[in-house]
Specification:
alpha/beta, signal, 6-stranded parallel β-sheet, 3-stranded mixed β-sheet, N-(1-d-carboxylethyl)-l-norvaline Dehydrogenase, domain 2, Rossmann fold, oxidoreductase, HIBADH-like_NADP-bd, 299 residues, NAD(P)-bd_dom_sf, 14 helices
Length: 299
């Protein structure tokens, strides 16, 4: 396949916090950008910067060498790809579609098969790195799909990410993202329990965290999420309700692959409890407040 290089036309569907930032970096890389979203207002900064507007996913795909999307969940991806005005109706054979959403791995594989029937290559590329990583263009892209599509779209991926890995066939990126989220939530749960234990034993949890950062327990979660737990800085960030969705996907993945996964089961239950406690709109680090509350601490 011919590499997709600037100023080739690239469309981006979904102007949420992550999508808008990734689209901005694709434009900065020199691609001719078209954007589409349910809310045109969210696209206004990009339109003011020179991007074109497409009223539907079909229109966005028409004439694009690459179509990117970042939307909340599996049904949203299916609607964008295969709905009445979906990508499949506008994309020409040879188009590469990159789905940056986090959805079910089995669905990603099925969507790729259905797109391939039209001659379109679908890559699943869920990302890690959060809103700041999206702004900085330093996301980790976990990619599943055909090598030919991955190679062709490499410069598009390079515009949004720093660590970009092709992991295997369609759906592989979603499996890796489920692993990523599982590890984060399991580590957050451990950090929340450890800091709560320190508080109840009379330790200064901030000093305790500093001590732990000097040893083998040092981690991204201890550096970042645990600090938010201590500061009660729960403005998202990454909302707890979205992490619950991701852990539900991880629970499905371990089930589908017959994995003995007690950590996943606990992570899923804790995310359900966190959202059901009224913290669904808070950052997922509010797990620390829930563990403290269940331990009898009053903040």
């Amino acid at each position: 396949m011919t590499p997709i290089t600037p100023p080739a036309p690239v469309s981006f569907i979904g102007m949420g916090v992550m999508g808008a930032a990734m689209a901005a970096n694709i434009r900065k890389a020199g691609f001719a950008l078209t954007v589409s979203s349910r809310s045109k207002a969210k696209a206004e900064p990009l339109l003011a910067a020179g991007a074109e507007w497409a009223p539907s996913a079909q229109d966005a795909a028409d004439g694009a060498a690459c179509v990117c999307l970042c939307v909340p969940d599996t049904p949203d991806v299916e609607a964008v790809l295969f709905g009445d005005e979906g990508v499949v109706h506008g994309a020409a054979p040879g188009t590469v579609v990159i789905d940056f959403s986090t959805i079910a791995a089995s669905a990603s594989a099925d969507f790729a098969r259905r797109m391939a029937e039209r001659g379109v290559i679908l890559l699943d590329s869920p990302v890690s790195g959060g809103p700041q990583g999206a702004i900085d263009g330093t996301l980790t892209c976990m990619v599943g799909g055909a090598d030919a599509g991955f190679s062709a779209a490499r410069q598009v991926l390079d515009a949004v990410g720093k660590t970009i890995t092709l992991l295997g066939p369609a759906g592989s990126g979603q499996i890796c993202k489920s692993a990523n989220q599982l590890i984060i939530v399991a580590a957050m749960q451990a950090a929340a329990e450890a800091l709560t234990m320190g508080r109840k034993a009379g330790l200064d949890p901030a000093r305790m965290r500093q001590a732990l950062l000097g040893g083998s327990a040092r981690s991204f979660v201890l550096e970042n999420h645990a600090k938010r737990m201590l500061d009660r800085a729960f403005k998202p960030g990454f909302r707890a309700e979205l992490m619950r969705k991701d852990i539900r996907l991880a629970l499905g993945a371990v089930r589908d692959n017959a994995v003995f996964a007690p950590s996943t089961a606990l992570a899923a239950q804790m995310m359900e409890a966190l959202v059901n406690s009224g913290r669904g709109g808070d950052d997922c680090a509010s797990l620390g407040a829930l563990v403290a509350e269940l331990s009898g601490l009053k903040d």
